[in-house]
Design brief:
two-stranded antiparallel sheet, alpha/beta, 9 strands, 7-stranded parallel beta sheet, 17 helices, 343 residues, 12% strand
Length: 343
């Protein structure tokens, strides 16, 4: 199947496309009534992630409704620790939880059965590439080693991921082994998604912003570079977006240091800095998700600011983080229409 006219891929090749292609992080999610209906059919959240029929359905729902230029696989970054038998569960009001891992547990981690456990996710990718419009880019994804490790160490999310930071200081060798292990199994997972039909993949480092400068280099840059080198050694044509949320000025060298084709920008990245980052290659972002909740003038002004600053270079228009459940679907229609009228 030809990938020509997939606008997101053109931008990932470094081209400027006008108007820029658009997709939204968490575009298949709780703000859509059709998602909530399908979610009820699935049972638990993880059951939905591992049901290829229903996971493909919720991935396709925002494409049918808005015609986004990319569909991102419906799954979760914590399917990796789930595949590693960490007893991952999602409880309403408490977020993800799992059995915390310690030094001994890190030493006992094995990659056996990870691929088998994740096969339903890979089947979802196959179904999506078959069922998506030809012009729609299919994105796979996984969590970055640092972010996944923070949940594995604490057993849950925390405001500043202090348990993982403390563990890394106290047990640097064990923590380094954990990051290397996660980098390797995650790279295998991304290769499997690419082989199943993903056009490009995104690495989510949602907790990069809690790291100091030296720690960012060790825990956010080095493992992601290891992943990208591993994927590109096996699939040289692979296109990879790296999203280090909250990294701020540390994004200056992030693209070059990791080998990512594009970098995602959260809404706190100043547009004047984003312009500088775009001189080195494609960027993705970075509208504040709260503007989509607000709608009206706040939404229009935010979209216009991003387009005026970044729309004349290689840009994939997106939010600076995931769309929230409070967002009005009608506001998303307004967003798409405004972006598509640029130029």
């Amino acid at each position: 199947m030809s990938s020509q006219n997939r606008k997101v891929l053109e931008v990932l090749d470094g081209k400027t496309v006008t108007p820029p292609p658009i997709w939204l992080m968490r575009q298949a999610g709780r703000y859509l009534p059709e998602y909530r209906e399908t979610r009820l059919q699935a049972g638990s959240f993880l059951d939905l992630c591992y049901n290829p029929e229903l996971a493909a359905e919720v991935t396709l729902q925002p494409i049918r409704r808005y015609g986004f230029d990319a569909a991102i696989l419906f799954s979760d970054i914590l399917v990796i620790p789930d595949a590693l038998k960490r007893n991952v569960r999602f409880t309403e009001g408490h977020g993800p939880q799992m059995d915390p891992i310690d030094e001994d547990g890190i030493g006992q981690l094995k990659p056996d059965h990870v691929a088998d456990h994740l096969e339903p996710v890979i089947e979802t990718v196959r179904r999506l590439r078959r069922d998506l419009p030809n012009e729609t880019t299919l994105l796979g994804f996984c969590g970055a080693p640092w972010t996944v490790a923070t949940y594995m160490i604490a057993g849950h999310g925390t405001p500043d991921q202090a348990p993982a930071r403390l563990f890394a200081y106290r047990h640097p060798e064990a923590f380094g082994r954990l990051l290397d292990f996660l980098a390797d199994v995650s790279a295998d997972y991304l290769v499997a998604q690419i082989d199943a039909g993903a056009d490009a993949v995104q690495i989510f480092d949602s907790w990069a912003g809690v790291l100091g400068e030296a720690e960012f280099q060790k825990y956010a840059v080095v493992p992601v570079r290891r992943m990208i080198q591993s994927v590109k050694a096996r699939r040289p044509a692979a296109k990879i977006i790296a999203f280090a949320k909250g990294a701020g000025i540390l994004l200056k060298d992030y693209r070059q240091a990791t080998g990512a084709d594009a970098i995602g920008l959260d809404w706190s990245v100043p547009l004047r800095f984003a312009v500088e980052l775009q001189k080195d290659g494609p960027v993705q972002g970075n509208l504040d998700p709260m503007r989509v909740v607000a709608g009206g003038v706040a939404l229009r002004e935010g979209i216009d600011a991003v387009l005026q600053a970044l729309g004349h270079g290689p840009l994939i228009f997106n939010l600076g983080h995931g769309i929230t459940p409070q967002a009005d679907p009608a506001h998303v229609t307004d967003l798409v229409n405004q972006v598509r009228s640029f130029g």
